[in-house]
Amino acid sequence: MAKIKVTKRRSAINRPQDQKRTLAALGLKKIGQTVEHDASPNILGMVNKVMHLVTVEEIK
Q1: The domain that contains 26 carries what CATH number?
Q2: What is the domain extent for residue 43?
């Protein structure tokens, strides 16, 4: 399965609670923090929900 690297780029201040929880579920706490995940449908759905707050790179 492919891997993706997700980096938090913007703050979660003044965002809805569900977006804050999604960032926490992805393991992102601080701006600039990067985590790696498998590109499963669940993870891709979470990333899509907070796409305006994160950047995504595919790892080969």
Answers
A1: 3.30.1390.20
A2: 3-59
Rounded-to-integer distance, Cα 53 and Cα 51, Å: 5
Question: Could you give the CA distance from residue 30 to residue 48 in angstroms, rounded to a whole number?
Answer: 19
State how many domains the chain has: 1
What six digits make up the tokens of 51? 């796409």
Q: Are 36 and 3 in contact (CB under 8 A)?
A: yes
12-60 pLDDT tens trace:
999 999 999 999 999 999 999 999 999 999 999 999 999 999 999 999 8
pLDDT at 1 exceeding the cut of 90 = no
Provide CB contacts within 8 A for 1, sequence distance 6+: 38, 39, 40
> Which residues are registered as beta bridge partners of 4?
37, 58
